[in-house]
Amino acid sequence: MTDVIERNVHDRLSRVIDPELGKSITDLGMIVGIEAVPRDVIDSGRSIVDVTVKVELTVEGCPLTQTIIDKINEAVTSYPAAKLVPHIDVASMSQSKLTGLVNDLKAERKQNPFTKPGTKTRIFAIASGKGGVGKSSVTANLAATFAALGYDTAAIDADIYGFSLPALFGTHDHPTNLNGMLMPVTSWGVKLISIGMFAGADRAILWRGPRLQRSLEQFLSDVWWGEPDVLLLDLAPGTGDMAISVAQALPNAELVVVTTPQPSASDVAVRAGLVALQVPMKVRGVIENMSYYEHNGEKLRIFGEGGGRRVSEQLTKDLKHDVPLLGTLPLEPEVRIDGEAGRPVVLNDDGTLADTPLAAEFKSIAEQLMK
Description:
The protein is an alpha/beta fold and 371 residues long. The chain folds into two domains: 2-93, 2-Layer Sandwich (GMP Synthetase, Chain A, domain 3); 113-369, P-loop containing nucleotide triphosphate hydrolases (Rossmann fold), CATH 3.40.50.300.
């Protein structure tokens, strides 16, 4: 009986996925032993069996250790034919075993994974012509919305000078380094990478040209992303080096332009969208942020109105393809308050999508983008 149980437990553990690497813990060599020992006791007609599972994680102090242990416990205790009592023995891989695993993963990836033929990842670069339009908060909440809707979601803070995604997601963690391959930080269901997660990131950064492009290439190629359904990039304002680098590194990326209603923002936003005339990048749509403030049932147009529609119509005319207005987002204090607290405003405390008009608008935008 013990042999049957051990084989069945191994089979069940093969369906437990490492949340960072996106592969089965058995395929990764993390399960190094399973031992079943029956007790001389029957409970509700089922035998009671102690099952010891020996696990080797990639690094000591892995931040997702408890998540993996919980999944192993669930796989063992849900065994239907007997009552299994799990005992999890956790250790770390030897240096030689870890090196072999990382080499295998690097050989599998070899290059920027998002340009391989057949990639399933939809890539959206979130851009704005000028700063101060809420582009990063739009990116953070859109990423959180995708994750809450069940999409495997990743986000790159490509605003090297003004990185803000770590704060908006409330994370102070650093990427785990597996022999030179980085594991992105996961917060609110979104895999994140940002220059702000590295030592010395609080200092002024004066990168340009090749070095700036190399930073993006490293974020794409030196980080183990798995195969996310959605990748969002929070670009720096304007049409400078990073936008060109994104177009070169990710020719399959789609541009989403964020503006506010007033002409001073929308006119510049058009120029951000027109970068698509110089680089191979399709403009997917426009989002108007801070469209109105609702007070006592009245929508106050604090920044004027119509900017998003003007950008949509002008880009449609100039680019000669439909560039829709994807949504209009209200100006709400909660966006700032929750963002400063480290939780995207579209989410409840448990990570589910909030039942609010703002969350519904973000859901609508996400669904349009995935069509």
